[in-house]
């Protein structure tokens, strides 16, 4: 799938599918939390543990969003 088409599908799903919107919102919130940790001048051990936890959660959400996109892309092609 072309990147532009995938971006369009993602935008469409955010508008029309509450579950996909929830996943995208959670993913964005985790990204913001990670950016806040990474922007600190000094990162503590607790920060590193939290960063690792957040990265795993973010990756899980990204995988779920990818599965959602794949299912809907298949339906659009068919």
Overview of the molecule:
Helix 1 (3-16) packs across helix 2 and helix 2 packs antiparallel against helix 3 (45-77). The protein has one domain (3-77). It has helices spanning 3-16, 18-38, 45-77. The protein starts with a helix and ends with a helix. The mean pLDDT is 90. The protein is built from 3 helices and no strands. It is elongated, with a radius of gyration of 15 Å. The longest helix has 33 residues, at 45-77. The protein is mainly α and 78 residues long.
Topology:
Blueprint: H1 3-16, H2 18-38, H3 45-77
The number of distinct structural domains comes to: 1
Strand content: under 5%
Residue share in helix: over 70%
Any idea what the radius of gyration is?
15 Å
Structure annotation, total helices: 3
Q: Mean pLDDT score, rounded?
A: 90
Total strand count, please?
0
Main beta sheet strand tally, sense and closure: none
* Helix-strand makeup class: mainly alpha
* Terminal Cα span: 14 Å
Categorize the overall geometry. Answer: elongated
Taking pLDDT < 50 over at least 5 consecutive residues as the criterion, the unreliable ranges are: none
Helix-strand pattern, N to C? HHH
């Amino acid at each position: 799938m072309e990147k532009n088409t995938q971006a369009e599908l993602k935008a469409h799903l955010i508008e029309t599918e509450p579950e996909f919107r929830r996943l995208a919102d959670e993913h964005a919130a985790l990204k913001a939390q990670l950016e806040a940790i990474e922007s600190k001048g000094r990162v503590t051990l607790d920060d590193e543990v939290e960063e690792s936890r957040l990265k795993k959660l973010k990756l899980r959400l990204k995988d779920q969003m990818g599965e959602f996109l794949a299912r809907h892309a298949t339906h659009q092609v068919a």
